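Troubleshooting entry. The earlier prediction with shikimate-3-phosphate gave an output that would not parse, so I re-checked the input for stray whitespace and re-submitted. Clean input:
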Amino acid sequence: MSDNVILVGFMGAGKSSVGRLLARRLGRCFVETDDMITAQEGRSIPDIFAERGEAHFRALEEETVRLLALKSGDVIATGGGLPCRDGRPEALRALGTVVWLRGEFDAVYERAQRAGARPMLAGRGRDEIEALYRAREPYYRQADLTVDTTGINPDQVVAKLLLLLRERSTLSPKGRGPQDEPQPEARRVHQREGRP
Ligand code: S3P
């Protein structure tokens, strides 16, 4: 197992800005899976979707997950759909500590629309995007740690995340807590949702 920090979450969750800040704070390299794909393909994500379709993009993501095994000690921001395949959450957890940047749908949706060209949003209405968000939640929820980003800025998200990462490495001499124990933040989320 390598000691990467892997950020997951829906489009607009803040993975890029939080990842960049976190990497700076930890003195680590910052990597984005979307950048790995565009570098390898020599064209932008919207062009890949337009010219080859979503299925081809998902195949490139699969290959990218295999390449991530070569990384160690990096902060990695994943594309919003990358963790959402059966077996993917486990594959990501084998690469390091997976962190879900969880935001309320409305806030995340608004941010996703504001910044960047996102082919998954094109031609889809709000309800359809919310359905996609809900369908993806069970995959994101399998992260090792969850940070609720509602109403706070990227600096504050990083501060919360650093505390959770420190708590986790203090709890476990190997820098890794027990898999089946929900972390404090996730426990609070589960309680709000009426789950154990
Ligand atoms: C996607 C999210 C995008 C990018 C691609 C597909 C998705 O990344 O990987 O457009 O399926 O949610 P961001 O989450 O960084 O926007």
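This one parsed fine. Strands lie at 4-8, 30-32, 75-77, 96-102, 145-148.
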